[in-house]
Amino acid sequence: MQQFTAFDGKTYDVSDAFGPIDPNAEGLSGEDLHRIEGRRATLDNIVRFLGGLTPAEALGDGATLDQVHGNAWEPDTCGCRLHFLFDHYATPEQRVHVAHAHHATRHCQHHQHLKDDHQAHHEEVLAENQHKNHAVAAVADHLGVPPHEITWSHDDDRRLTLKHPKLVKDKGLNAKLGALGRVVQLAQG
User: Fold this and answer.
1) Is the pTM of this model over 0.85?
2) 91 vs 122: CA distance, rounded Å
3) What is the pLDDT of residues 5-53, one digit of tens each?
4) Residues 22, 8: contact at Cβ < 8 Å?
5) CA 93: distance to chain centroid?
6) Strand runs (DSSP E) across the chain, as ranges?
7) Nearest Cα to Cα of residue 132 among 188, 73, 78
8) Are 1 and 14 in contact, with CB atoms under 8 Å apart?
9) How far is 38 from 33, CA to CA, in rounded Å?
């Protein structure tokens, strides 16, 4: 385990797996120093992104600073910008996204009611976006066309409408879309 003192003067644990971070170690080449400077800048950026949280508060007891990965996401289904954290070393199947109250978070007009609950905001926007992705994929598969040929929109009540010139009402397609759990409106166009 290594220790890193960030720009804020606080010291954080960093796992050895991250690579060396001590610029004063003996025998370093110029290339080694360049890598270390990059790692230290990355760690400072993580501290900035955490905005006062510790790695343990963000990811759980025993978490080290280098485990924290912060990400911003602007879904194509609305005008929100969300920030979340996850364990950088976890596999994609193991990752748990933790909504983060970052100063650059943005709420669109449809999700203003969630501005005080970052986790609920993240969950609702993610569910809406995944629903659109699954519905588009189901229709594209059913019609035998690439997904980018399916156009979509949401109305003010966030009901999804999918459009394609070949689209006709069909019991098989209705069953596929019904399994998604939310209403999907279909239209030729």
Assistant:
1) no
2) 20
3) 998 899 999 999 888 999 988 888 889 899 999 999 999 988 888 888 8
4) no
5) 14
6) 2-5, 11-14, 68-73, 82-87, 98-99, 151-154, 160-163, 184-187
7) 78
8) yes
9) 9
